[in-house]
Amino acid sequence: MAGSTRLPRQATACNWCREHKMKCDTGQPSCRNCSARSLECITTDLRRPGRVGRRREPVGRRGKRAIEHRPLPLHESASYTVSGSSPPSPTEKVLVPMIAQETPLPSMFIAPFAGEEQPCRVSQAERPSQRSNIAVMTDKSRSRCQAIGSGCDSVYLLVQYLDLLFTNRDFWRPIFPHFQQGVAYSMEVSLPFLTSLPDLPPSAKADEYLVVFFSKIYPIYPIVERDSIYELIQKLRPMLASKSSPFTAKDYPHLVCLYCLFSASADELEGHPTDIGASYLEAAYSLYGHLVAIPYATSVQALLLLAIVLRSRSKEGASWEVLGQAIRIAQSLGLHRDMPNPMIMADGFDMAGTVDLSSRLWWTAYILEKAMVLESGRPSAIREEECDQTFPHPVRSLSLPGRCFDYFGALIRLAQIQDSIIRLSHRKQGRTTKEILHEMGRIDRSLLDLAATFPEDIRPGHDIFCPPEEFHLATFVTLSYHQSLIALHRPALTSHTSWLRSRVSHLCEGTPWRSRLRYSLCIGAASARSILKTYNDMTLYSNGSRLTTLNQLLLAIMTLSIYVTKIPSSLMNGSDLAMVLAFAESIEQQYLNLGQDAEFLRGLALLRKQLNEHVTSTSLLHKPQLAALPRDAEAPDCGIDMEFDLDRLDGAWPSLWTEGLNGFCVNDNDQDVLNSFLLGLS
């Protein structure tokens, strides 16, 4: 009939409709098919045979459709209902050790698959946001926490997902609570009370440090001018030695620049954190208040150098705070805008090449911020529509002979692509699966086009064959490139592999990126292998560099850990596991040398032990074979019960991965099945 209302199809059909492959509906107390035949309409819980199920329309991850169609009564509007007697949670084993430590739980572990019986009341003020995509990391002290966004490829989210994959395995002890204990080291910098500032190094040592800085660090972060640095050393050395010459307010930013430069160079020269580097860092950080009090271009230079040194010592949280201050001051000075006649450089070593230096300062801040947003998921302080700063002139190493590629310019272009990845992950407007996949394809194409502009001997995705003195620069860019690829293809790591491939085949048909997106999981694993191999090559064929961070290696380790878990029959699982174990042990030792929390280190050791146990045991059950995925990966059902409406899966998937795993919860058993399937947990 023209005026009849079509009843929606639900996720799980009643027993009769399922048996006869009929389209069921949500009519109560009986579906239309059973009512027409005078049959008793019975729905059995598919996951718990013998128990009565519920016929409901599939909704998004957080039940948004159900909320829209079923307003809460007035007396319920001030409270929030949480299950008190739902079936055992798949993350029950994850909850136990965290509750035992009385640690505030990340939202993803709070009743992730709760039902609706026996409600307990929570005040409206304590009600978690239905739209929040922020996870709060905290340690056992309950006084330290940091927020991470779920959209980007944070290492913490991959750790959470790995725990979810193993929630039904008795041997697996959750590693996420251990990784939480790294918060304090990342954010805090212990400073001694300084009664005097350290002297600058002797002239010969200072010259050695400057050679290191301008050959190994300057091509990536061209923040200062060489001639101006020599002038500053000549000016400030006698003032520090005399202990009586008063410093002016403008001298402190210059002094911080020198301290940071010598700290970074000392560590870079030795290839590991040094005591002298730590002493210069402490002196520079103790003058932080002077940088904020004199908010001009020299303070931006000093803050950027300070952020770089902190980041090289795995102090990402502290580096993020310092970088944010540098960006705010830079924006106040107009460094983010194209100003034909800038009047912002008013002192000392900033006069030469003012326009180009302004551009280099801004783009250095831009590169650092986009890389750290991509890692942490924190909100960006830069609004793209307000930035029109021009690109600087090509930056060459001041100490390397012959040809040297413009790595700084390449990093700017990579950072702009990283911004596209960030916006794809964080944008909260409703998008379809097709729109997300097409945007992923376009960004992936941009990354490939960027790599094609590199000379063949340093091209990302290929082995590096450049001279040893340039090897660390090519390694830094290559690691950043593959880090971006992993971030872009993260949905493949945390989604049902065959289902996602089938949707790519269907929704991206006729597009140039269809083939690559179908193998997103392989791309992520290949990028992880490239990160570890390139880093290893750098340590073998050059002197290494402190520019590369342990976070990049940890990301690769977690990516490969998920890959060997999801694809147990891969022929490369043995070699992948060997890489994970070797590099996890290596960075565990490096974190130990840095002073990272012992609980964090135990988490890495636990990961190595349990993953080795899992892969070894599964290798006996799954004989390695080339066809690890289903042969017919484009089959419409993809292994899910045919009663699921696959269009509903397309509607639920975008919010599932763009909002990550935080606040992961469902409202009924049917939704439990749907979400577990989409995440590849069932």
From TrEMBL:
Q: Which Pfam families match?
A: Fungal_trans, Zn_clus
Family annotation (InterPro entries)? AtrR-like (IPR050987), XnlR_reg_dom (IPR007219), Zn2-C6_fun-type_DNA-bd_sf (IPR036864), Zn2Cys6_DnaBD (IPR001138)
GO molecular function terms here?
DNA binding; DNA-binding transcription factor activity, RNA polymerase II-specific; zinc ion binding
Which SMART domains would you find in this protein's record?
Fungal_trans (SM00906), GAL4 (SM00066)
Domain (Zn(2)-C6 fungal-type) ranges: 13-43
SUPFAM superfamilies in the record, alphabetically? Zn2/Cys6 DNA-binding domain (SSF57701)
Recorded superkingdom: Eukaryota
The alphabetized UniProt keywords are:
DNA-binding, Metal-binding, Nucleus, Transcription, Transcription regulation
Gene Ontology process terms (BP): DNA-templated transcription
How is this protein named in the record? Zn(2)-C6 fungal-type domain-containing protein
